[in-house]
Amino acid sequence: MTALVFPGQGSQRAGMGADLFARFPELTAQADAVLGYSIEELCRTGGAELTRTEFAQPALFVVNALSWLARAPELPAPRFLAGHSLGEYDALFAAGCFDFATGVRLVHRRGALMGRADGGGMLAVLGVPAERLPELMAGADRGLVDLANVNSASQLVLSGPTEVLREVSRELSRHDGVRSVPLKVSAAFHSRYMAEAAAEFAGFLRGFTFADPRVPVLSNVTAAPYGPGQVAELLGRQIDHPVRWHEITRHLLDHGVETVEEIGPGRVLSGLWQSARRAAAAEEDRPAGAAGEDPTAGAVATAPAATAPAQTGAALRAEDLGCPEFRREYGLRLAYLAGAMFRGIASSDLVIRLGQRGLMGFFGAGGLGLDRVEKELLRIQEALGVDGSYGMNLLHSVDDPSYENSVVALYLRHGVRTVEAAGFTQLTPAVVRFRFAGAHRDARGGAVIPHRVLAKVSRPEVAAAFMGPAPAAIVDRLVGEGLLTAEEGRIAAEAPVSEDICVEADSGGHTDAGVALTLLPAMMRHRDAAMARHGFRRRIRIGAAGGIGAPEAVAAAFVLGADFVLTGSVNQCSPEAGTSDTVKDILAGLDVQDTAYAPAGDMFELGARVQVVRKSTMFAARGNKLYQLYRQYDGWESVDEATRRLVEETYFKRPFAEAWQETRAHHLAKGRAAEVEKAERSPKHLMALVFRWYFARTVSWALDGDPAQRVNFQIQCGPAIGAFNHVVRGTALEDWRARHVDLIADTLMTGAADVLGRRLPAPAAR
Asked: What is the pLDDT of residues 149-164, one digit of tens each?
């Protein structure tokens, strides 16, 4: 079995194709007409132009294509086609996706866009597997470097700012057996720095119609064969996504390919193929259980699908999923909630639309002033009623408990029944007060608690606190201050603070980067222990949040035993979300790998982290740099002059002193004179407050869609949005303007019911 592969940029050389142009005069003339110059002369004379991206890409496409046409009669029918980066265009041409002239037009435009990019470079790294690279770089990449190519198990290419790549190269040189070589390119190809070129090229591709491949073509973006209708999509993403060549060679090996024919002037791919074959042979010879091999690997993959229990009875519906008691108590048609996203991103429009369609969302009150929170709450209540299906966020205020108390007082004054408690590291008087205010006994002496606290947690010790009665010290304080009655205090000693615990795994915003498959079962065991310890008769329910972006993820949560699911990131990319259209455009273009971790502005000094969008913005890298400076220096004046200038000019866009004056005025206006006094005594604290100012501004710039600050946008988001983008690709919901929050809910829940209906028996009611 044979595969044909086509080399990419870097394989071009002077004199290539010398015997081909006369053999294919009509196609050569077509290329000349598209390009506006003689392709034969360019390839024959070579020189500096052949090293430039805008000339190299058309030249290599033409020579690869003509080489294939010349050799096609003698070649065996291939099982697969593939090409490295630019070479993928030749693979698609050979597969019949477009004609020769169209191929020239595509690569001419691609080369022009990529050639226009500058300000970065690429570094080949030899002798280290990708999984060890972060460890060996030891932070020298500063979060600014992307993995651009994985050519083999030990041959990688990095993209990023040139000066950072130099630092990485110096750090890697400390390790035996590791070599790094700068590549002679003009920009950081196949990385986040090509996002604008990729977007422009994707728009260009919309002007073409492509056929599906007649022979399977492996995509650089997915390392899998192109699916129906995917040519334009994957070519558009290829420019700013890594080349997964090592996975492509493994795909060929795993599917029985024995011979690879490299078509064109290069022989690099042939060498990589031989290396991959040797590595595969060595793995086969290794005894089972030897180091680096799991003797059970493949057991699941080879299990026949028919062993899964068949669906019985009526078709499973979205309404059947989760806990019936949860749906009844909350008055919902689905065991599904939309979580709060701070600063009103989870807007009143979002909450109202869900409430009007038998669903429920939480308004994102975190980070908003009380006046704004009250205004949005009244708008929600006007649309849904005081007792309607809605909830409000209660975000833990680590450094301002008075604000948290004021929010709870506002909610109680306006009759709010349900809050989503988020970001709590311990129970506070405010959340205990909300839960038990108004608690009383019924005629039979049973406790009636009118308020619900849905606690989003990721740590067992925090979950245990919410699963138990309120601490006596907090209850006594509230009773002593007249904020709870004696009867309310007694009920607080016998009921859990929360009867609905939402386990938050790797999510957008504040996160401990937990894994749902680990957290959910552990939290359920904590729940069982808490109920036994406290003698609760009423079952504490467990929900799942974080990573809920595909029907399969929803189905997995319910299989693990979740009573409900809660979504977040996917709702941020909807017409109802309270953020800018620019942010929504960015979110709609994300894949699952396009997020990163950065310091949390509200808990900056503590090192807490948030998950944010990495693609199309530099915030994650810059936020991590500021935290590094905070850890390293005792004050702003201790930082070296070059770094201070870089931060002021590219991050703050103003002098540090001006940022401090704005920060100082903000704190004084909030009644935090003590904070200002502390900063003026402590240069390190002053630096932290100014860095916090930057973090707050990055959120505002994103919410406003400020085009001048796009590189600084802080968009808190998890990988679920990338998964959802895959789910809706090719459907009406591909355009975020059609992604109404209730349609997102129905897509996920109906899809999950379909997944479970095909794979599992109908679940028993709980």
From this structure: 999 888 999 999 999 9
